[in-house]
Design brief:
Blueprint: H1 2-34, H2 44-54, H3 63-79, H4 90-102, H5 115-124, H6 126-135, H7 151-161
Helix pairs in contact: 4-7, 5-6, 6-7
Length: 163
């Protein structure tokens, strides 16, 4: 008697499982039928925007390739530099570029206006701090990553960061 009950249970259980599988497959097909397929030709700017979103933010180059790329960027910056006087505003340079790392201390960057900056100023002097900002040090790229900044703008930003 136990074997008959077991077989009946297995038949019923198998039937329930097969029923759930059929229900799942039918719901998948129904959902695919209800949702229209995206048409890339309908809006070509979507493809362009998607490419822009997944594009790398920057590139790291070293050696001769890096030197050539830096020279190219500096030459392009010299060509596009304004003919008139450049505004030297330390707070504008700091807020536009330096704040991203120096506000949170990213990668060991000294926090602006903190005791860390005061200690560095006392130990190294202003000229060394400005030199590090111009030439780069540790994780900080030269000129904070903006080769268009002048030495005066960088010095103004460094002075703005001091306590």
């Amino acid at each position: 008697m136990d074997q008959q009950e077991d077989r009946a249970f297995l038949r019923q259980f198998s039937g329930v499982i097969v029923g759930f599988m059929l229900l799942t497959v039918s719901l998948i097909f129904l959902a695919r039928h209800m949702q229209p397929e995206p048409n890339a030709d309908a809006n070509p700017s979507q493809a362009i925007l998607a490419e822009q979103r997944i594009a790398p933010v920057a590139a790291v180059r070293s050696g001769e390739e890096g030197a050539a790329a830096l020279a190219e960027v500096q030459a392009a910056g010299a060509e596009t530099a304004p003919a008139g006087d450049v505004v030297v505003d330390g707070s504008a340079v700091y807020n536009g570029l330096c704040k991203a790392c120096h506000e949170a201390g990213v990668a060991g960057a000294p926090i602006a206006g903190s005791d860390q900056m005061a200690v560095r100023l006392q130990e190294q002097g202003l000229e060394t701090l400005v030199s590090h900002a111009i030439n780069g040090i540790n994780a900080m790229p030269p000129r904070g990553g903006n080769p268009a900044l002048t030495d005066a703008q960088i010095q103004a930003a460094v002075e703005f960061m001091l306590p």
